Amino acid sequence: MIKSTPFSISPNPANLYLTPSLKSTIFKIRYTIEQRRGLACLLGDVGMGKSSVLRLIHSEYTDSESFSSSMIQTPNFTSEFGLLKGICADLGLPPRNSLYNQEKELREFLFKQFESDKNTIVFIDESQRLSDKMLELVRTMLNLETNTTKLIQIILCGQLELQERLTGKKNKAIRSRVFMAPMLDGLTLAETKAMIEFRCEREGLVSPVPNDLYQPIYDLGRGIPREILKICDIAYALMLEYEESTFNLELIETAGKQIL
Question: How many Cα atoms are found within 13 Å in the side-chain-facing hemisphere of 91?
Fold first, then answer.
């Protein structure tokens, strides 16, 4: 029976090691939501842990009676109407036969939520996939507000392409609505070591990485959390295969050659 690995790259929020940069990012998103500032963007390159952060924040509000939330993990919709229906369905609202009627349904829901002192949040992962028309829908949703506050808070999470889209001329209107847009940073060497040790502690294991081998893992992974975890996962599998008790440089270099 193969032992469970501490180095899974699945976006489980419980496995997320919170660096100072991540803690700052999470604070900014929470502030946007709880102060009803409308729109925030969570940005980062591939493999930086955006989905894990988004799921962590979403989980904090899911069970709260003060919030209603929708999580769109993969926005593969063919139209802005499809996106709106997906959001409404996630909030428990019935489908309507037109964009206008679906917006009306959402508007009535948001005002009822506000009257009940509830805040509504929509999280959209992989937001770089949203078309310009869908981004325009997001902007119009932000028009649902009272004289003093936003009725809906929207968190767009996406790769650097989303930042490029938002800074383009076509999307100037929605860019002006972005309250905060924190960017996820890569790990430092010290954070790489701490993340590996944190993952192992969660599985009740001692880190199999000798102190002098964190540097080559960090170098091969270029500070990217997903790449570092993949290297460690492959090296861990090789360690078990060869019946070793710790990583060695050969295992790490072999693992590094097996990631694309």
Answer: 29
Cα-only R_g, the chain: 21
> Which pair of structure tokens corresponds to residue 195?
């993340």
Q: What does the domain layout of the chain look like in residue ranges? A: 20-180, 187-257
Residue 81 to residue 220: CA distance in whole angstroms? 44
What is the spatial distance between Cα 186 and Cα 223, in angstroms, rounded to a whole number? 5
Could you tell me if 130 and 124 are in contact, meaning their C-beta atoms sit under 8 angstroms apart? yes
Low-confidence ranges of the chain (pLDDT < 50): none
Return d(Cα 158, Cα 42) in angstroms, integer: 6
Task: Quote the DSSP letter at residue 129.
Answer: G
Return the pLDDT at 4.
73
pTM higher than 0.90 for the full model? yes
Tell me the C-alpha distance between 212 and 210, whole Å. Answer: 6
State which fold the 187-257 domain adopts: Helicase, Ruva Protein; domain 3 (1.10.8)
CATH number given to 20-180: 3.40.50.300
